[in-house]
Write a structure and sequence with these properties.
The structure is a single chain. The chain is α+β, with helices and mostly antiparallel strands. It has a single domain, classed as Tubby Protein, Chain A. The chain is 17% helix and 32% strand. The strands form two sheets. A twelve-stranded antiparallel beta barrel has the order 1-2-3-4-5-6-7-8-9-12-13-14. Strands 10-11 form a two-stranded antiparallel ribbon. It is globular and about 50 Å long. The chain starts with 12 loop residues before the first helix and ends in a 6-residue tail after the last helix. The N terminus is likely disordered.
Amino acid sequence: MALSPVEITAPGSNNMSRDCDALSSNKNVFIKQTRKGCLQECMGCEANSEFNVATMDDRDTDIYYITEESSFCIRLLCKNARPWNTTLHEGNDKDGKLMATYTRPFRCPMGNCKCCCYQEVMTDVGGTQVGTTVESMWFCVPGFDVKDSTGETKYNMHMPTCVGGMCINCCAEGLCNCRIPFYIYPVGSDDEVGKIVKIWSGMKSELLTDADKIELEFPPDADTNMKATLLGTTLMINQLFFESQKGQ
């Protein structure tokens, strides 16, 4: 049950350009999910996701816009396991220059000890797949491999751990601050080089809407394509772990 790639058509040539160079100057981004589809969410169906993206230094000035393409039936039946196509645009609406597209095929829901049907999201820039993030086999702590265009794993990603890696470290970002992190590590290293952190959005947003707020800090050595890939990773992480936890 996979969605076909989104066909992008626009009258202006700028809108058809797929160029992620605008990402190269940013060391981090702040992703803000918009408040939409509240009625659908109250009925148990995830709304078609939409995000504004700023930097962590200036969280009120939107520089990118992200919108999901998936049907009502898919969102109703599959929810946080649903497939989607998502587009990243420069500016604060869909009329901005198209920078990247993200494709998430249908996969079995998250679960430990799987040997196939891993969660994944693929990143396309300029008609070329530049990166993929794939769930890795896990037992206690969910993990993901972030790969470049050649399929080589550049980073491993999982929540911070304790007890020799057997448990999630709930205190890694401090106590009682409602920060939920996923850390990014170089392959074969335990040194954190970047992170994805879901932060508290406020009582109203957390309980009644799907307006998550997420900080993404890029690894210092991440190139433009890898930054675009990590944006797609963040969208998948949000769907898998945060959309299903409203009101909990």
